[in-house]
Amino acid sequence: MARRKRDYYVVLGVAKDSSEPEIKRAFRELARKHHPDVNPADGGEAFREINEAYAVLSDRDSRNRYDRWGHGGDDAASSGIGAVVDAAQDMFNEILRRRRGKQKGSDARYTLEVTFEEAAFGTEKTITLPPQLPGGKTRELKIVVPTGTKEGATKIIRGEGELGKTGAQPGDLNIIMRVAEHPKFRRDGLDVHSDHTITFTQAALGAVLDLPTIDGEVKMRIPEGTQPGRVFRIRSHGIPQASGKNAPRGDHMVHVQVEVPTELTAKQRELIEELARASGEETGVVVPKKRLLDRVRSLLDE
């Protein structure tokens, strides 16, 4: 049993009072979507239905006859409709053949290495690319590295890849960012971390130290009685979120370790033994913290 034909206006998704340009636009969109080379699932049935509907509605006489008689007037115009359908299919086949011949060029990759500070604050780099054609000249491109660039970030430069075939557009250039390791700093999000070793005396008595950051040296106070592994926060000396002096920034986290001397002079040993006795380690008597620190100061001043 033959399938009942759908209303041609429904097939194209247009209203009955649609203008010729509206019908033509709807036909082109549907034809591209349902062409057998693009959507072969239904064996081209939808494409044939779309072409048949357009063949009738694009011709003024055929459209008037269809509006009056519906599908009952198809036989009188079947031969003309078939010719138009075949012509439309040939047209789209030719368009697709041309598009296949014009293949976009392949994308190219370039690895750009920047320093820790350059990635943090942003910079501009000039890279040199090989010629696109044999015997051609090398190309130089200026690449803007954004503020806060992360390891592995990709920047796409449109049209700077390999040339396309038969005049098609070239591919793109993918710039892969590589951030060199820093001897002192490591990054965690917008925060910068570093390790700093202080002496036993500095940990016990406190000190003011010059600590390196990505902004240069910054003074930081070490309070008396600092324990190994303590982390100090230097605010707003981390990675900027955006360019500009007033942009929000992460923090610099300083991980403090206390250096324990491995070789002692006689005087140092005497002082430490005196400190042990003063701290009550031999008698089990615990000296209050304030008295202990005062005693350390007096011993070191002797």
Largest sheet: 4 strands, mixed
Determine the fraction of residues in helical runs and give it as a percent range: 25-40%
Give the topology string: H per helix, E per strand: HHHHHEHEEEEEEHEEEEHH
The SS-based structural class is: alpha+beta
For the secondary structure, the number of strands is 11
Task: Determine the mean pLDDT.
Answer: 83
Question: What is the topology, as strand order, of the major beta sheet?
Answer: 6-7-11-10
Overall morphology:
elongated
The Rg value, from CA coordinates, equals: 39 Å
Strand content: 15-25%
From the N-terminal CA to the C-terminal CA, the straight-line distance is 115 Å
Number of helices: 9
The poorly predicted ranges are 283-287
How is this structure best described in words?
The protein is an alpha+beta fold. It has helices at residues 8-12, 20-34, 45-57, 60-69, 74-101, 116-121, 200-205, 266-278, 289-301; strands spanning 108-114, 123-129, 139-145, 154-157, 173-179, 186-188, 191-199, 207-213, 216-222, 231-234, 252-259. The chain has a four-stranded mixed beta sheet. Strands 1-5-4 form a three-stranded mixed beta sheet. A hairpin with a 2-residue loop joins strand 8 and strand 9. Helix 2 packs antiparallel against helix 3 (45-57) and helix 3 packs across helix 5. The longest helix has 28 residues, at 74-101. It is elongated, with a radius of gyration of 39 Å. The relative contact order is 0.08.
How is this fold's topology laid out?
Layout: H1 8-12, H2 20-34, H3 45-57, H4 60-69, H5 74-101, E1 108-114, H6 116-121, E2 123-129, E3 139-145, E4 154-157, E5 173-179, E6 186-188, E7 191-199, H7 200-205, E8 207-213, E9 216-222, E10 231-234, E11 252-259, H8 266-278, H9 289-301
Parallel strand pairs: 1-5, 7-11
Antiparallel strand pairs: 2-3, 4-5, 6-7, 8-9, 10-11
Helix pairs in contact: 2-3, 3-5, 8-9
